[in-house]
# Entry
Amino acid sequence: MRKPDEGPTVNSAVVADGEVTAIVSAPPGWAPEEGELVTCGYEVQAGWLWDGQAFSEPALSSREIHVAWFKAALAEMEVLDAVDAAVRGLPQVKQVLWEYATTIREDDADVAMLALALGIDLSEVFDRADTIRIGRGS
# Structure
């Protein structure tokens, strides 16, 4: 609980290396252990960028990879069975798209929703998929 002499809290971003790592309601004088504290509007979210003058949303990734490499990465991460089980719970149209897609895009809303629901880091999946692809000489 705040002490009365701490004053009102201010919506602030914790910024490290130009990226917002957290949003906090900080009393005057408070400082994070790492990074700097920058006052921000309520629209700013973790992951946004700070150039020293203004906040901006990060550009959406548009990485795309063949579904075989993507599923191989999921298998390597030991989450392919969980993803397949989650897909079976989706409407039939989405199941068909998952089964017959030839490529997967990192910015696809359905892929992002599944990853979020299952706690999967999509960047890591795409990085691993690319490593598998390169390792096979493709």
Q: What stands out?
A: The chain has a mean pLDDT of 87. Strands lie at 10-16, 19-26, 36-39, 49-50, 55-56, 64-66, 103-105. Residues 43 and 55 are 10 Å apart (CA to CA).
